[in-house]
Amino acid sequence: MNLDKWRSQIVRGTLEYCILLMLDNRTYYGYELLQELSRYPIIASTESTVYPLLRRLQKENFLESSWQDSAEGLPPRKYYSLTDQGREYLNAMNKEWQNLLTAMSNLKGE
Asked: Is the pLDDT assigned to residue 72 strictly greater than 80?
């Protein structure tokens, strides 16, 4: 039994959704997204996974970004937020997620 491989597939299949959910509530900079994801071991990810995903989502017009100065005198940070198109995509994903949860509940006999 290779549970780690299965977990990896769960993360791969849901990370985009998780990031969009987070950005629906407020803006985040990249490292901040990583920190938030790390609070949940099942979806914790690395920079080499998250940053390319953010670039792709931005290229697909689901995200926009802006540079903001840091209050602590640190270098500026690139903050990400959802576009209107990103919000529509997230709404569609929410419906599909609910369909998946219903199917899983039915399969489990709940």
From this structure: no
Question: Rounded to a whole number, what is the largest CA-CA distance in the chain?
Answer: 55
H or E stretch covering 23? helix 3-25
Q: And the tokens for 29?
A: 């900079």
Contact 28, 57 (CB under 8 A): no
pTM, entire model: 0.90
C-alpha 15, offset from chain centre: 5
* pLDDT digits 0-9 by tens, 39-64: 999 999 999 999 999 999 999 999 99
Contact of 88 with 63, CB cutoff 8 Å: no
d(CA 3, CA 25) in angstroms, rounded, equals 32
Find out whether 79 and 28 touch, Cβ atoms under 8 Å.
yes
C-alpha 80/C-alpha 66 separation (Å) is 7
